[in-house]
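Our collaborator T.R. sent over the components below with a one-line note: 'Predict the complex.' Nothing else. No constraints on interfaces, no templates requested, no preferences about which chain binds where. So this is a plain run: every listed entity goes in together, and whatever single assembly comes back becomes the starting point for the next discussion.
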Amino acid sequence: MEEESKEKERYPKLLHLIPNEREWKPIINQKTANLTNKLLDQDERELELKLGLPGRDMEETEEKPSLHSLGYSLNAFHSSSASHGAKRAFSDAIKYKSQVYNARMGKELSLGTSVEREKNKQCQETEAIRKPLATAQARNAAAPVVGWPPVRSFRKNIASSSKQLPEPQKYETEANPNTNSKKGNFVKINMDGVPIGRKVDLSAYDGYEKLCLAVKELFKGFYQVQKDSSKVGDGESRENGEDEIFSCLLDGSGEYTLVYEDTEGDRVLASDVPWRLFVSSARRLRVIKSSELSRLPTGSISWRKSSTVQHIIKS
Amino acid sequence: MKEVSNMTNEDEKHERAPAGDSPPPSSDEVFKKVIENVLELLTSKRDRNAASAVCRSWYDTDARTRRDLFIGNCYAVSPDRVVERFKSIKSIVLKGKPRFADFNLVPYGWGANFTPWVKTLRDAYQNLESISLKRMVVTDENLMSIADNFPLFKDLSLVCCEGFSTLGLAVIAERCRHLRVLDLIEDDLEDEENETVDWISKFPETTTSLESLVFDCVGNRFDIHALEGLVARSPSLRRLRVNQHVTLEQLHQLMLLAPQINNLGTGAFRSEKGSMVADPNLNLVSAFASSKSLNSLSGFREIEPEHLPAIYPVCANLTSLNISYANLSADQLNPVIRQCHNLQTFWVLDTVGDEGLQAVAETCHDLRELRVFPFDPTEDSESSVSDIGLQFISEGCHKLHKILYFCQRMTNAAVITMSNNCPNLVVFRLCIMGLHKPDRITGESMDEGFGAIVMNCKKLIRLSVSGLLTDKAFEYIGRYGKLIRTLSVAFAGDCDLGLRYVLEGCTRLQKLEIRDCPFGDSALISGLPLYYNMRFLWMSSCNLSMRGCREVARSKPNLVVEVIKDGDMEDEGEEETVVERLYMYRSLAGPRTDAPPFVKIL
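Returned assembly:
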């Protein structure tokens, strides 16, 4: 077992390699810059307050904050509100760490210095401490990491559905917004003229604006492909075209409008309902040509991609 | 073998025949016939693949005589190439999306469409009887094609598929006159609420040859009387798994109509609300008591625990019990499980706690497969199972082959104990749900536990790791996990070394799925010699760049290297761009033509 601990030192954990002198800062991707900075500062501040324990911990405070902020921010990233941003920040953080690693590693690292050994000990302690503090942090934050734990989506609803049993009607609207914001709420979204549907996680957004932006991101790739073949213009005009298509998804004045199907199977204009109600009742989304709007709400339009199959069944 | 001896007798007759008659078959032809007869007895795909690689003659014979086709990655080979090689296929298994698609890591619309396959198959294989698809997109038109083009069609199995609706099911029910198996498992149907078709009532009115009907994932309502009628005229029905709309009363009726069933999915397992009928429990008990052949139970989707005692009469016969949708406590589980001495497969929710698992361990000594699912599958949930439960299981269930265990707290000691007590483990999947969680007692990493598993479980072919893990764990895996074919890694490791250990050591590796680990380009490139032997590699949220991925694509022309993004692909050109999702697989078909805009093939 002794051999094992020695080998442990030779293959140190990420935490061990953070040098004393340097403040740990991740490589900041422009998109997540503000988010990252905010979290870091907040964490460091919080940490310094919380870890003011007496005794031997005091002398290690110089090294600890950077270690802790590393461990902390990892967890904080995981539990930050935008899982998208969180994932990217995390991968940035990891990128930085492995750069440090790769820079210092040829083959095996012999980190037999006493400083490093102390760091090992610290790491064990910090890990033991990290857990309760981290979970406190996590509870404050919102959406978790995408696709973790690895259970299929129908298993995610067991907790909510068993609570609903005694009085389904009463609890449904109350329970749903909570579960939808906690766990991923993926609904299908189709756009007129695009053969491939997508899925969008409603719990990842806090309002219609962000959702519309996301919808644009999801489908603009398809329009680029189409336009590549037809348009001769330069990149600028192409982008303007996209903006035109995806602007005003909500008010019906743009080329396309966002509608959704609710729990009762009715088709509803997204802009007609407040965000929360939309999130809790939307089962499926569709971006339709605004010219089709006048045919609502008779429900005469079939959502099905193929009407030929229907004809055959009905005969 | 009988045929062979007949051949040789005839041979002799020919030789004795006077000159002027047809010449005797050459020894080559005789040999060919012998090989054909022998190969026909080979059904395992690995045996067949090995045989076909011996020489041209064996290759041709295999191509002529192979009846069962298995294609583990639908993009590894084109349909045209398949039908060109194999002349008469009776059954086909096709798998599509990578497994991480189950957890929303593969954007919707990625691919794995069955359409190009069905078009080619229908022209080539008139006698096709069986289609099994996993993680593929199957449309209603596809189902129509199946129903209309394969007159002998018998078995349809759709697992984790999507894209079809009750319309397509109706067509299958109506037109597949020889339907024997219709298994719909964990599929995601397309139906809208107001356009559901009652497909159950579309089965022909005559006696059917149905042996298995599984539709617990089809959440639509249907006419229960239609199902009763169907069950009544399906004398061969052995397996029936209904959806959550079926109440206890209705289940009772179905059981009376099909006493020969041995595999029953019980639907909701709750009574009709406000029912005035006499205590359903009493009738149900007798129904179970008369089901002499029942050995497998599942369902319990909305269980009313007070009705659980109804299943007592069959517990002693049960080899498989799936109560993983039922929120039961240890006390509720106890009276049931204590009677299940012959249980081999058990799926349960963690609500039963370590105490419940103790009861399992003390009773089910024949247990081969255990799955413990989380009631609240979030990172920081409270879970009632821990290392203690795992310890109990390892003490009582020495025959364990496969285990899937979700928990929040684990120790190396428990895992090591399991590795010692359950040497027959073939699948070990431990999911410690909190990220980077260490041993809850020692605070150390979980390296030693997983190390012991790969060291002591010599038959291990599938491993999923979790918890706080350093590169040491991967060193163990690479050194001892020589038989491992599937490895799943998440939130683990320290640097490239970890992945290198695996790629250099696990020589039998087929499927490697990694997420959120600090593995980078140099590790990816170190695996180049292995990639043609693997079915696929998935890496997401790691430390890969476009440069590394491009280098792999350059070096290995028969690898399809897909970079998948969820947003725009604008910054794809830069070499240093971090690759969010990498999915690469060997393929004889080259880059696929149906890739959506968010997939870039390098």
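Summary for T.R.: Chain B touches chain A through 79 residues (CB under 8 Å).
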